[in-house]
Amino acid sequence: MSGHSKWANIKYRKAVQDAKRGQLFTKLGKEIEIAAREGGPDPESNFKLRLAIERAKRANMPKENIERAIRRGAGLEKGYNLEEFFLEGYGPQGVAMMVHVLTDNRNRAVAEVRRVFTRHGGSLGESGCVSWLFEPKGYITVSTNEMDPEEIAMIAIDAGADDVQIGDELVEIYTKVEDFQWVKEALEKRGLKIETAQISMLPKNRVSLDEKGTFQNMHLIEALEDLEDVTQVYTNLELSVEMVDKFVAGQAA
Predict the structure, then answer these.
(1) How many H-runs (helices) and E-runs (strands) does the chain carry?
(2) Where in the chain is the domain with CATH 3.30.70.980?
C-alpha cells in the first residue's frame, strides 16, 4: 500500500501472520518468477529479482518456494505465462489509484478489478487517467529499535535520500530510483533493521477526506489487495496514524 505507508506496514506485519499467508506467498512467487524471466536468475546482476527475493524473505517465505519460483522464471520448470501491467482508476470521492497486476489471464484480472471498484463505489479508468499523479521512487522503512530516529534520518540523508519522515517506531525514507540501492546498502552497513525496501509509485500530492470517505477508500484498497492477481495498490489518499488505528480497530472488532 505504498502511498499511505503507515497502514501498509501495519497490514504487512499482519499479513505474514494471518491465514492469508499462502496467498501472500503465491503473489511473491509470481514477482520472483517474472523478475527472473525478465532479467535472469542471478540476483547479483538482476536488481528487480534481488528486491523480490528480499521481500519474500522478510515475509518468511520458505527457501524452497523462492528457489522454485526462480527456476520457473529461468525456464527450468513449468511456470505461469505471466503478464505485468497497471490498471488505473478512482475510489470514492475521486481518490486516484494505480493497481499493479501480475496475472496469467489478463481478461480475468481486468474483470475482477473492475468488479471490486464498482462494488466499492469507485470506477476503473482508462490508461493514463491517474498515472501522471504518481512518480517512481525508492521507498525504505527502518525500525527504530530504540535507536534515535534522528540519527537514522541523518544516515539516510548522508547516503543520498531525498526525503525522510520520522515516527516513533518507524523512519520512512524516500530516494530517487537510481539512488535506492546505494541508500539501502548504507543503512544495512550500519546494522539497521529494514522493514520495507521497494520501488514504489508515490503520489505527487495527497488528498484528505473525512472519516467516512477515508474508510470507504480503505475498504476498496483492501478488497483490491485481496485479489490473487493484484500485488500492489498505490493511491494518493492521505492517512493519519489516528485514522489508521481507528480503521484497524474496527476491522478487528
Answers:
(1) 9, 8
(2) 83-132+205-238, 133-203
Whether pLDDT at 69 is above 90: yes
> Cα 78 to the chain's mean position, in Å?
27
At residue 26, what is the residue type? T
Residue positions counted in the chain: 253
Contacts of 52 (CB under 8 A, 6+ apart): 28, 31, 32, 35
- The DSSP output letter for 74 is T
CATH fold of 83-132+205-238: Alpha-Beta Plaits (3.30.70)
Cβ proximity of 111 and 101 under 8 Å: no
Whether 86 and 98 have beta carbons less than 8 Å apart is answered as: yes
- How far is Cα 203 from Cα 18, in angstroms, rounded to an integer? 29
Task: Say if residues 187 and 140 touch (Cβ distance below 8 Å).
Answer: yes
pLDDT category of residue 20 using cuts at 50, 70 and 90? low
- pLDDT tens digits, one per residue of 158-184: 999 999 988 777 888 999 999 999 999
Q: What are 44's three cell numbers?
A: 547479483
CA angle 161, 162, 167 (to 5 degrees): 75
CATH number of 133-203: 3.30.70.980
Give the per-residue pLDDT at 75: 86
Closest by CA position to 203, among listed 88, 101, 115: 88
Give the CATH fold of the 5-73 domain. Answer: Arc Repressor Mutant, subunit A (1.10.10)
pTM exceeds 0.85, yes or no: no
